[in-house]
Amino acid sequence: MGNGTGGAPARPAAVPQASAGDLLHLVRSGRATTRGALQQVTGLSRATVGQRLDRLFRAGWLREGAGGPAASPLGGRPPNRLEFDAAHAVVLAADLETRHARAALLTLTGAVLAERGLPLRVDEGPEKVLDRLGVAFGELLRADGRGPEAVCGIGLAVPGPVDSGTGRVVQPPIMPGWDGYDITGRLGRAFTDRTGAGAPVPVLVDNDANLMAYGEQRAHHPDCSAFVLVKVSTGIGAGVVVDGGVYRGIDGGAGDIGHIRVPGGALELCKCGSYGCLAAVASGRAVAARLRAAGVAAASGRDVRDLLAAGHPEAVGLAREAGRQVGEVLATVVTLLNPGVLMIAGDLAGTPFLTGVRELLYQRALPRSTAHLEVVTSRLGERAGLVGAGALVVEHLYAPERAEARLAALGV
What pLDDT sits at residue 68? Predict the structure, then answer.
């Protein structure tokens, strides 16, 4: 027997009992993009692969494009490449903040087709807010000349912890009246009521920092296997993406770093009811409060952002100090997770805040933990949550088991 170091390369392990949904996943991931490659990866016969691909063609989910480079030096016609047909449906997404929201219509690949901002206050409660999102969804569809039947799903980012199993927020400090509310059901009804849709569509809900992290990692850092995004706006939260998937913890509470107790904040009351939380001393809300105490008009993190853009000296100094306070907590986060990218996003994500973060982070974290770390700011900006929400819907609907169930429901 040989030692396993020579001879022909081992064939990839076959995908057991590969369904049409499994074939779609292989094509979408780029692992197998021709009929021959699908046969090789799955171990299925040519006829079986053809039958399962035919279901995907009839559903409009897959198409055959032009052939790639010829595999043989002798030439010959290259095999046609299989491609996910992203034009067969669209996704609606919304990113809900404390004082405003953004809603968008996106392609299945994350391109924004239509978008608008909404002056909403989350403390108005779920009934009013979700109904207004339904109205906005109808406006977006009409603006792009599409009917509601084109929509395959809805994604929603919210500023609070979410139980991913139920889609309900759990004890959200800055979302009064939302705890345990049936967001998916109400938003689904708002969509059908306000667009005239003949049937409901799936609605997925997740924390805003999670979805921002998911959108940014997929769009600009797909090769980063450990990615952390920290959003600093009205509150402070983190989203973690590990090996391409959002890490949520046991019940959706992962990344809630805004409620870690910090030195020097013992007298500061947080929106969660506790004293000394990071969000109580370093969030956009906290910086705005300090500016008001200094006689500067600032009601929210957005006002702080505008002051920073104008170079207001008091705002710049307070943002840098807030960055130092957040950086002290992030030293522990970085040591624990050892990410390749740490992204700062939200209203305070600018040079003063980032400078403060770096000062304390590199001072307090072990050099080993930061040796290969990039500390950057958001590239998708206000669209990060929307792109992440859209991607969440697409990955859910076209996952192998879900795709197989949907094909059966379509009768193909």
Answer: 56
DSSP string, 296-321: ----SHHHHHHHHHTT-HHHHHHHHH
Beta bridge partners of 341: 227, 374
CA angle 73, 78, 83 (to 5 degrees): 140
Indicate the SS3 state at residue 185.
Answer: helix
Residue type, 224: C
Tokens of 286: 């906290």
pLDDT in tens, 227-241: 999 999 999 999 999
Q: Are 124 and 180 in contact (CB under 8 A)?
A: no
Helix 46-59 crosses helix 35-42 at what angle (to 10 degrees)? 120
pLDDT 10s digits, 179-215:
999 999 999 999 999 999 999 999 999 999 999 999 9
Kindly state the average pLDDT of the residues 339-363: 97
Domains for the chain: give ranges and CATH numbers: 20-68+80-86 (1.10.10), 88-209+386-410 (3.30.420.40), 221-378 (3.30.420.40)
Is 19's pLDDT higher than 60?
A: yes
Q: How confident is the model at residue 105 (pLDDT cuts 50, 70, 90)?
A: very high
How crowded is residue 375: how many other Cβ atoms within 10 Å of its Cβ? Answer: 18
Residues in a beta bridge with 86: none
Return phi, psi of residue 360, to 5°.
-80, -35
The 101-107 sheet, strands edge to edge: 112-118, 101-107, 90-96, 151-158, 203-207
Residue 155: in which H helix or E strand, if any? strand 151-158
3-class state of residue 259 by DSSP? helix
The mean per-residue pLDDT over the stretch 262-278 comes to 90
Calpha distance 155→390 (Å, rounded): 6
pTM: 0.92
What pLDDT is attached to residue 69?
53
Non-local CB neighbours of 311 within 8 Å, separated by 6+ positions: none
Contact 266, 283 (CB under 8 A): no
Instruction: Say if CB 296 and CB 312 are below 8 A apart.
Output: yes
In eight-state DSSP terms, residue 171 is S
Q: Report the alpha-carbon distance of residue 37 to residue 331 in Å, rounded.
A: 45
